[in-house]
Queue: 4 jobs
Job 1
Amino acid sequence: MAALKDATDYKFSRENNFVVVMLYLNLHVMGVYALFLMKNATIYTFIFGLFLIWLGVLGATAGAHRLWAHKSYTADIKLRIFLMICFCISGQGTIYNWVLEHRLHHKYFGTKKDPFNHNKSIWNLQILSRITRPVGGYDKLKEAVDMSDVEEDGVVMFQKKYFAVLYIIFALLLPVNAPADLTKIKFSTTYQRGLVTISNSLDTARSHTMAALKDATDYKFSRENNFVVVMLYLNLHVMGVYALFLMKNATIYTFIFGLFLIWLGVLGATAGAHRLWAHKSYTADIKLRIFLMICFCISGQGTIYNWVLEHRLHHKYFGTKKDPFNHNKSIWNLQILSRITRPVGGYDKLKEAVDMSDVEEDGVVMFQKKYFAVLYIIFALLLPVNAPAEYWGESLRESIFIIGILRYLITLHLISLIETSSKIWGCSYNIENDNDKKLVDTIEKMDWMTYHYIAPWDYQSNEFGFYGNDVTSVFIRLCERIKLANSLKTMDGHIIGQAIQMSMVTNKSVTDCLNDGQFIDVGHTKFQQSHSLIRS
């Protein structure tokens, strides 16, 4: 920066303060969520929140503003300590910095050097000036402000020195603890600056979890918000929008790398968790299983074990109230609500009835389950975000938001479509009751969604359409060529027709008729063209 003779000659610009941007985004997103939770809170919590807001504002108005910034009165040590605590409750940083910026605002009022220039928009004053940091000559401007009187005030300097500890105590711990401790309410998140999030009482929560029924199939479960996942989804979508605006600054290499990671993550779900482990549509060599496990870790979708368990539960109770991804509900419910809520009631009993013995015998899956946290940090966060900055000079901000956030968000929704697709494209699982065209479409595998729920173990049954010619099917056939995969299960339309006829005669489901083993073409003896990388 050019050195000028006088501090008043300095001009400064502003750049985003990443930490404060994230704080503001989180506060506003969680604030919206808190509004929906207020109906569950007691009147005492509401009154206590208003009282804390008043104390925080008092600390700023009577304390930082009138007492310390403008010296409009003098105060006894006890009052100064009280006002300092009130300012800590507000969570607005140190009194020293607040006074410094406010005096700077008065000194250069209405000029380009005013950090809160009233000639700019309300949006700029209320938001942008708070989430950006001045750069250029701003430090020199601050040095020209007389702060000697404030520096002589022991209360202010004590708060400046121990701000972090005081903030944690007075802005976080004490306000959040009081409603839960004094009114014996179970809290689900923080109350901060008017953001109230109180869950139902312990008795209400217990009534959901203590229901005991005789048989797993008799269990009915409801869903309650999973606060951690709700916050994750809200933040991902808000930051994902911000990432879209940053894409214009990113290099083409970052864009290509992001698409590649999305493909790897989806491959880990489709070829790995879905077709290999959930439906056993083929067997895989240890090297392929490790590769697919890493791909699934890149997607960041939790453990393979839990994904397979919920997907098998989805197939077992397809279209019923026990189906965690019931296609009779809305797309919004399938794609979002089913992901951000946790089942309560009899859900654990339902899961116990699902046979997971084959998955538990797979060392790769159980390794990923045991060390998921470490693998997630490495493959879903550190390596993807580090690569653009390390190898082609991408800025850390673009790496975090485009590769870390936006890529993760897109992958999340694509993998969620595996269950949502039955709603989007339609599925008539009980096809024996459908018309002739529906039967023909299923036999010819044009109604690929219904076909998947009839024969889920067919390795060519694509998650998103185009039976047999999709990227995942081609990948599996390629792995078979190089001896990494074998025992690929599939069948032809003639066999499906026979199974449908048997179903009509025996009154068994088509799936049960197929599952006796006589129809599954493991060796491709009836379907040799599946060996080609692209089917004719």
Job 2
Amino acid sequence: MISASLLWVIVGGVLEPVWVVMLKKYDTAKSRKWVWLVLTVVFMYLSPMCVGMAMDDMDLGTAYSMWTGMGAVFTMVAGYLLYHERVDRIKVALVFMILVGVVGLHLTAGARS
């Protein structure tokens, strides 16, 4: 069963690329740039807030490492899907190593006492 802390980290990791995509939309928008700016700021707040919630029951280093790892992976996937950024075998291998690290951190991390 997924712990509440892990769920908070996952939500934060999923929200991380959202603000990055909103920032790119802001940068490239021809009009209504303020909408993209507001969305960027909102998601920039929500993502680390979720990780902060996870740190109630999870070690700081574990929560932060998992969050940044998931954020990096999901941001690369968003770049590929939304902006057709190039993904080669080396990038896939490196992302796989990040995922292995994230899973390893989860498996070896115990609840704080």
Job 3
Amino acid sequence: DPIPLLGTLSNLLLFKNKFGAEAYRKLDVIGIDEAQFFGDLYDFCCEAADLDGKTVVVAGLDCDYLRRSFGSMLSVVPLADTVTRLTAQCEECGKCALFTLRKTGEMQTELIGGCDVYMPVCRGHYTNERGATKATVEVLIVIQNELVFETAAATV
């Protein structure tokens, strides 16, 4: 029987304690969604699979909007029996979308949003759009620096 979600855990290694040792022992499969956000993902997967004999299914983003590895996702690949990389279709041309394009100027790695903030794109559209996005961000930084400079000059 499927077991209901436990809610949000900030640390996967707390799972066994929160769930209960006896209930945990009865589990065959553990699913982890949004795995890129768990700093202890590697340690948990090693413990659950290697020591406890669980099947661990991990889902999450392997890279951020800048195509840098995201969280611990890629660190668990060597532990995996199989790896399946799922992709969307490019919103511009319908080709395989390997990347996520952020449509806003926010720069932080973690930004919650849907299709208003992100869109799946192929390599060609990622590199074309990133060039435009990078230029826009550089202009915003220049404008921001000039405003800071002007504000500082005005207060002197």
Job 4
Amino acid sequence: MTSESASTRIINTFFTRARLNWDDAIALLHNASTISTSIHPPQSNPSMYASTTPIYGAPRPIPSDGSRSPNLSAASLGFEVEHVSRPPSAMGMNRPPEPVLDPEFMYREHVSKLIGAKSRPCSVSGRIPLDPSHLVLFFRSKTGITHSLDFPIDIDYNTPPALDVLIAACKRTQTPGYDTQLYESFYYPPNLPLTPSLEIANHPILDAIRKMLFPTLAVGHHLTVRREKLDVLLAGSRMPPQLRAMNNDGRVATLSITLPVRFRGGSLVIRDSEGRQERLDTAAPTSDLEWTAFTESAIMRMSISYAVFAKSFGATTALTPDPLFTPNQPFLDLFPPVLQMSRGRKIGFLLSHDYDVDPSVVLAESLVPLLRGGDSMLYQAFKLFKLAPMLHWTAGGYIWPVDRPVELSNDDPSAAQRAANGSPLPPIHGAFSNSSPFGYSPHMPGALPAQTTADMLRLRVEESGAVPLATAEVNLLTDWRAQESPLVGKARVHFVEAGLLEKLVVNVVLVAYVH
């Protein structure tokens, strides 16, 4: 912009909109020249950028009759600049410091979650090693015609006509409080005949459910099943939560069997009575049948059987190459943080259930096929992570080697020490003897100082081959958030103390080295 062009445009504007005389036009030209100079400053005078001299003349008073126009002021034509208190690059430097989490606290939190999940399993799942082509579903439509549906099914490749008939016979699932358009799912009417070609009674699924979810079920109680319904979820549909109040038929658990129909996505969300939630993300291939059992909820039930195999609930052996069940993915997801923070250590977990064995006769490792509940889940999880878990006997901060039982001698452990020191032998004593309970009289010449029962027992434990946990470099992990004493399995070893029969309480600890 030049001074002439700016002056001419301003004069034309004000002559059109206001009645100006020539004196006003001359004053306006002077101001326009000043404006043009300030917009295009000469290169020889850079100090004009920092000049504090006002670039406009002093405003003249405005006549009340409106015959004269006021001067243009800085408020109407000047540049408005907002000063930034600090450069943008420095604005992110003074962010509030993020809270620093204590690694030890995080480690204890992960251990607490893992032990809590082990102590209270609410679901168990597994796979049925069955050829899906041997599975056939027979059903009767509304017209009274019986159809057979062969498996496996892949609707992306081919849709069997019987599947269309089955879907047409289904009804929409009605759940109080949920929109059926949003939660669109279907179920086969229970009043129409529906029979699979295999029966669940021919498969030891109920044995696995009892071992895992009901390990303390009283002797004489058995688990039975009753087929409830077949649920069908089409592409894009979802099933609303099945409330516990809807299943007031006295059930204690629900068994859900996923048929060999190829699908993508979809998760089975399980919530127990205490609000804990497990999310099972599965994408069943056409060659597998999956079963899931969980307490106090209901999704789907169907009876399926398979050829009987010798299965174990604990370690795998030559006769049982595969376990009957595998830990759920939500339980396995709790392991990586604990294992990552335990690298280079030996970690140990106390087992939760009692096992009717004599620790003085059998090794702790012999309990592996007998493990149940969370103990079995914990053992199998370590196996899946390619670790080598081992069972040991432990008591009072001591641990026995994996190849040693708890053999406590009934002799006075200090007798050999007294004989080596030349001390007289103690008198024979028994349950009804009046002699000192530790086999010597405090008034005997050369008698050893009195020892506590704990000291005597510690000597016996060490003589049996046990070593302190610190010496064995075993870090025993416990739930630091537990409000009460944790549930720990116990076994008992008999020994004689002061002529009386006593029982030493020992526990089983699962030890694994995290490499």
